[in-house]
Hints:
The chain has one domain. It is built from 11 helices and no strands. It has helices at 3-23, 27-36, 41-56, 60-66, 69-92, 95-114, 125-142, 146-153, 160-184, 196-215, 219-239. The longest helix has 25 residues, at 160-184. 42% of the residues are buried.
Amino acid sequence: MALEDLVLPIVIALAGGIIRGITGFGGSLVMTPALSMLFEPKLVIPTVLLLEAFVAAPTLGEALRKARFKVIGPICLAAFATVSLGGYVLVHTEPQVLRRAIAGMVILFSLMLLKNVRYTAQRRMSTSLVLGAVSGVLVGGTGIGAPPVILYLLSGPDSIEETRANLMLVVTALSVAALAMMWYRGLLQLEGPLSVLTLGPSFYAGILVGARLFRGFSEQRFRRFTLLFLIVVAVAALLV
Length: 240
């Protein structure tokens, strides 16, 4: 494996880690469109999901104690039922079409967060099930299933701690379901420029750097910078 084949993926993983460390989210939103400019999305998505899952694992214990399972249970169950449909999309869609779909999702989600868009209607079981079903298809097909869930759960009456725990568990559950489906389809890999073993150290180092940077700057300013950065990356992915 040539060194030049590794440098750019490692730099992208480092950038994704820094954004993740600063804001607490956004790692996959940086890495998925950026790496998809270099490799097929069906090769990129499993690695990004694995990296995010490893990062989330140490904090799951606290999230399990604070989460509201009546809220997130229907979302997760519906997502589990549709993630295989997303896997079919991932495997059978043309890489260029999928790459642009991923970039478009990142742009739309980033703009909605910049405008502070929230779900304002009352929470209903039917809404949670539809949302979960859509998220399952999205995470299976693009690796980015969290945006609808984030906008939905941020709008609820739960405390900040409960909302954070809800989001963490839903995103992790979606990732695990998608990874299981991708493993069944033979899409996971442990070698090459897209392996977790190659990108994991730089991603984790980026998280440490981002967390240190976050302590010295305004959270609002950095979140705004992150969202604008995500839009730039996604626009570049659309144009390639």
